[in-house]
């Protein structure tokens, strides 16, 4: 039987259960007290949903606990990242940036402040594909980029090591483990899979079975050269999405991994 990880709002913190929890909140000040009484030791990560919030109460609380700063509007919110840099002293912190118009500036700001980035990519239209290509160029060729930008980093390494890892894993959206609890307490799959009927799958189905029977069941995925790195991710939630742009991005990451291999093979070996 799988042991789910639940992504749930602070007011839904259960007492007495044993599941692992990713708790999301707009009120970080309420979190330390709530977690101590209701979920000691079961919180595996925190998502802060408002960059306007004061994250200072989290600075010294549960050092080492991963924190995600979830941005809603990248075009206007990126200056708010500055106030959250003290979190980096005690926590692994990642900024979740939605791929919406103007997100490139938010990515540059996050990376400049030493935050790793996870792109919340959706199903990007051609305009956003162009912006993604600019961000990929920045990630691959700007020497000052010292932090990972996901999904680029995970997929680049996956190509480099010739060990395919799908976007469901790279972007921490693996339905094998993750469940989402809405603000009204209703449980579903996470993110782009919300609303998917899982009744036909066994409760402990592996990700491979998920991909075969649900995630990458679209006929275009079956013959896609990037099936094992994508896993059908871009066919959700709208299966008629045109993957031409995202395939181009996969191709650029594949070429970058090949180039990296070539450069390393040609590098002189020090004795
Ligand atoms: S790129 Fe598109 S067609 Fe290929 S596996 Fe992903 S979702 Fe399917």
State the end-to-end CA separation: 51 Å
Q: How many helices in DSSP terms?
A: 10
Name the bound molecules.
iron/sulfur cluster
Order of adjacent strands in the largest pleated sheet: 7-6-5-4-3-2-1-8-9
Count of extended strands: 9
- Tally of individual domains: 1
Average pLDDT figure: 92
Q: Could you say which structural class the secondary elements and strand pairing correspond to?
A: alpha/beta
Beta-strand portion reads 5-15%
Query: Biggest β-sheet, characterized?
Result: 9 strands, mixed
- Principal-axis shape: globular
Q: Outline the low-pLDDT stretches.
A: none
Helix content: 25-40%
Which key phrases capture this entry?
globular; 14% strand; alpha/beta; single chain
Secondary structure topology:
Blueprint: E1 5-9, E2 20-25, H1 31-38, E3 43-48, E4 67-70, H2 74-77, E5 93-98, H3 103-112, E6 117-120, H4 126-141, E7 149-150, H5 152-160, H6 167-170, E8 178-181, E9 187-188, H7 207-215, H8 219-222, H9 227-230, H10 244-266
Parallel strand pairs: 1-2, 1-8, 2-3, 3-4, 4-5, 5-6, 6-7
Antiparallel strand pairs: 8-9
Helix pairs in contact: 3-4, 4-10, 5-10
Bound molecules: iron/sulfur cluster.
């Amino acid at each position: 039987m799988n042991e789910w990880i639940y992504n749930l709002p602070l007011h839904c913190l259960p007492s007495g259960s044993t599941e692992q929890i990713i708790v999301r909140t707009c009120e970080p000040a309420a979190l330390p007290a709530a977690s101590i009484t209701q979920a000691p030791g079961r919180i595996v990560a925190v998502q802060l949903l408002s960059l306007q919030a004061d994250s200072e109460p989290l600075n010294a609380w549960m050092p080492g606990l991963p924190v995600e700063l979830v941005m809603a509007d990248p075009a206007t919110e990126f200056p708010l990242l500055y106030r959250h840099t003290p979190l980096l002293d005690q926590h692994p912190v990642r900024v979740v940036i939605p791929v919406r118009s103007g997100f490139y500036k938010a990515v540059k700001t996050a990376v400049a402040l030493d935050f790793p980035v996870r792109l919340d990519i959706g199903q990007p239209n051609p305009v956003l594909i162009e912006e993604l290509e600019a961000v990929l160029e920045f990630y691959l060729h700007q020497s000052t980029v010292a932090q990972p930008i996901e999904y680029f980093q995970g997929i680049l390494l996956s190509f480099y090591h010739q060990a395919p890892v799908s976007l469901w894993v790279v972007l921490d959206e693996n339905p094998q483990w993750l469940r989402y609890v809405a603000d009204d307490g209703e449980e579903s799959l996470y993110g782009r899979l919300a609303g998917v009927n899982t009744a036909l799958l066994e409760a402990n189905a592996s990700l491979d079975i998920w991909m075969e029977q649900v995630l990458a069941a679209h006929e275009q995925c079956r013959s896609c050269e990037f099936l094992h790195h994508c896993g059908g991710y871009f066919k959700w939630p709208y299966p008629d999405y045109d993957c031409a742009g995202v395939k181009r991005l996969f191709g650029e990451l594949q070429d970058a991994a090949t180039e990296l291999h070539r450069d390393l093979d040609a590098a002189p070996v020090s004795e």
